[in-house]
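During the reporting period, our protein records have gained a structure token line. A sample record is set out beneath this paragraph:
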Amino acid sequence: MINIRILQTKACLILLLLSVASSFSADTFAKESKSYIEKDTLQVGYTLSPPFLNKKNDQLIGPSYWLWQEVFADKDIAFNYKEMSHEELLKALKTGEVDISMSPLTINDERLENFDFTVPFQSVQSGIMVEQQSAFEKAIQFLRSFFSINFFKAMGGLAIVILIFGFLEWLFERKANEEEFDKGIKGLWQGFWWSAVTMTTVGYGDKSPRTTGGRVIALIWMFTAIIIISGFTASIASSLTVNQIDSGKSQMNDFKDKKLATIEASVTEKWLEENFFTNRTSVESSSEFNDLLLNNKVDAIAYDRPVLQSIIKKDSLDQFKLLPTQYNYQYYALGINRSLPDNFKHQLSLSLLRATQTKDWDVILSEYGIEQ
């Protein structure tokens, strides 16, 4: 994966070279922006997408809003803000109803055909959010994982090894130690019992080898049993872990037969469509996700991980969890209508890069729990 900092650095160098060539500096952006956009007021569209952009007491907050303030503070430009759905924002940028998006938008080929972007300022991946299991459901799932096919295979293999060493011990002891190792089936069972007790180091002492051959077999079995027990324990732990991962549906292909919800016209929706996730529903806002999951209208939510992490962070009742699945790598940027001058777009990107390369930007991302 391309490190976002490396990408930003390269973009910054290119923009700086262009800046020299076009003779437009950051001061030009600050002092003369209004003169070359040739508009009295810029139309700014946004859709609430926590944690990057949200509202608190009717005031916009979040890293995207912080960036906006950093870039346009003290600029001689008037703005008219419009809140709209994600799909409406994309259409408005294309038609010119909106000049700039304050909300972060993922860069992709389809959108680049309709409007322009600034340089990217954040990299994210999509994730999967599901409803948290109850204690009873977790207990049932644990029992199912424990008594799995792999578990019974391991138990069967161990029983065969115990039987082999029990049989060998019985062969040596059946004549010299008849009171502890009888003849026939009963003696075989006594050999199996001795082998199992020796392996588990219980040491009842009710049966012990007396012949030289029996003691050699016992010595070999003691050391072999230590290795077997260690491997068996690791095998059970591995089996339980694998089954828990499978039951948690942590791989995207496991969701092919499940109903998913995502944001309408989002890059995640397009990814699901291209990868043949046909059983899905789309909504206008992430605020609808909670209701869909809690009312069993969908099995899981597929969308950008920072947004899903923000929902879980506010979940005081511990109702949701984010699976470790990560897919659909993407870059966030601001969308710009094509009618705006290239000089303005260039200086906007340069200002964004400078703002996101400061320590303040790192602090803001950390404050809102966004992975870097």
